[in-house]
């Protein structure tokens, strides 16, 4: 297969720049503590300065991989699948989610929402970023809103985002890992004063697992 053919398949979402895939415990948000198979797709131009997976940004660093291969590998370990990135909605997610759904998988996505929603999802974790705001559509469909707190202004941003999501969306504040010791007391105080919010922690990092 030549480069043009590969690029065309990637454009259609029939191949994806696969950074890594692994079976582990979901560490964040509503499903924390749940065993799940993670599919990390390369490619993101949102560019958060505190991103802990910057190697995911350039999709050219990650081999275009056929969706059928990704699905086959995933279902060997779990029927609960988490698609993350990078920013997975950079790509057309319909072929991947259709293939997983046909095999009875439950599919979650972790996304900034900066690109149009594609694919069929059982759970949408929306983690918006100031640099590139979500589309209006995903606010209506998100199951959880997870705002990363790096500084005090992020509480204002969190409330702005919470005002846009649907009424059933669960609200989480999560400290940015490198600044957690400084921000965690502020988050605890904020949630106690604003109990519509919950605290999310990156428990997988405390457990020292992927």
From TrEMBL:
Family in the record: Belongs to the radical SAM superfamily. 7-carboxy-7-deazaguanine synthase family.
Keyword Nucleotide-binding annotated: no
Domain (Radical SAM core): residue spans on this chain: 31-210
Cofactor: S-adenosyl-L-methionine; Mg(2+); [4Fe-4S] cluster
Keywords assigned by UniProt, alphabetized: 4Fe-4S, Iron, Iron-sulfur, Lyase, Magnesium, Metal-binding, Queuosine biosynthesis, S-adenosyl-L-methionine
EC number: 4.3.99.3
Pfam families: Radical_SAM
Catalytic EC class: lyase
Binding site for [4Fe-4S] cluster: 44, 48, 51
Subunit structure: Homodimer.
Role according to the record: Catalyzes the complex heterocyclic radical-mediated conversion of 6-carboxy-5,6,7,8-tetrahydropterin (CPH4) to 7-carboxy-7-deazaguanine (CDG), a step common to the biosynthetic pathways of all 7-deazapurine-containing compounds.
Binding residue positions for substrate: 25-27, 40, 84, 210
UniProt cross-references to Gene3D superfamilies, sorted A to Z: Aldolase class I
Binding site for S-adenosyl-L-methionine: 50-52, 86, 127-129
Reactions mediated catalytically: 6-carboxy-5,6,7,8-tetrahydropterin + H(+) = 7-carboxy-7-carbaguanine + NH4(+)
Species of the source: Salinimicrobium oceani
Protein name: 7-carboxy-7-deazaguanine synthase
